[in-house]
Amino acid sequence: MYKDNIFIEESEKLINSSSLKKSETVNNGITLSEIDLDAKTSKAIGRNKGKYITITFDKDNITNKIEELITLINSSINSMLDYLKLSKKIKVLFIGLGNKDITSDKFGYLCIEKIAVSTKTYKMYKNVEGLTNIKSVEFTRAISELTSADLVIVFDSLKAEHIERLGTTIQLSTGGMYPGSAICERKSELSKRTIKANVISIGVPTIINMKSIENNNPDLLVSTKDIDRVVDDLSSILSIAINRLF
To answer: How far apart are CA 152 and CA 170, in angstroms?
Structure first.
């Protein structure tokens, strides 16, 4: 099971077949979907318990909606802080995951480059395990312990099932993540259970399987020709939101 897919795509298949409930609001062309996954339902569908928020928008009209997106991102993070029973007077560690030399995988790196730090915030970029031989979970746990962080916010690229999701979706979650599982089967879970600190993951889908378009190359991962602009735009919006909030 490839676990770093966009959860809302899975949820659309489950709404009518389980106790999963989704609230959704649409304002000026931006859709905000929110799911609180309880322990019973999470066990039934194989996802971690937690809050999942998805923001969807038109990437071609993003310059006209930057302030609205920033506001939604910050209200979503505040909602997650409430869910985790945390205040904004905490130590926060920002971790960016991915390969900075591959455009479709550099979202995490760009976020970290653009986020400013204060007396109670820290930031680190972690390159992929294939280049460092260090697991992202072990790296994050070590830095979290070193900084005594109360909250770890992780940025990474995700995989989608539908090409329409690329560059049009931001996913926030308290349910943890599985670094690298978008491209291969891995079981290293980055969550409060494994790193001993609260986790909020923020991701954007940048790749899909070719099978979503045609069946001749089901294992081939593809992106869009404008992914460099998309990743740069979204990392800028996320970093502005984070800098205003913390």
So the answer is: 18
Q: In the predicted model, is pLDDT for residue 15 greater than 70?
A: no
* Reduced 3-state DSSP string for 87-105: CCCCCEEEEEECCCCCHHH
Please indicate, yes or no, if residue 27 is contained in any of the structural domains: no
pLDDT digits over 54-92, tens only?
999 988 878 888 999 999 999 999 999 999 999 878 999
Greatest Cα pair distance, the chain, in angstroms, is 52
Domain annotation covers residue 141: yes
Residue type, 155: F
Residue 147 in tokens? 């900084």
DSSP 65: S
Q: What is the pLDDT of residues 124-158, one digit of tens each?
A: 999 988 888 899 999 999 999 999 999 999 999 98
**Rounded-to-integer distance, Cα 52 and Cα 133, Å:** 30
Instruction: Supply φ then ψ for residue 11, to 5 degrees.
Output: -65, -35
Phi/psi of residue 147, each to 5°?
Answer: -95, -5
How many whole angstroms separate alpha carbon 94 and alpha carbon 88?
14
Residue 169's CATH number: 3.40.50.1450
Sign (positive or negative) of CA dihedral 232, 90, 154, 58: negative
- Locate 176 and state its tokens: 């943890």
Q: What is the DSSP letter of 175?
A: S
In a domain, 9, yes or no: no
Q: Is residue 176 part of a domain?
A: yes
Full residue range of the structural domain in which residue 202 is found: 59-245
Number of domains in the chain: 1
Buried-exposed string 206-228: b where 16+ CB fall within 10 A, e elsewhere: bbbbeebeeeeeeeeeebbeebe
Gyration radius (Cα) of the chain, Å: 17
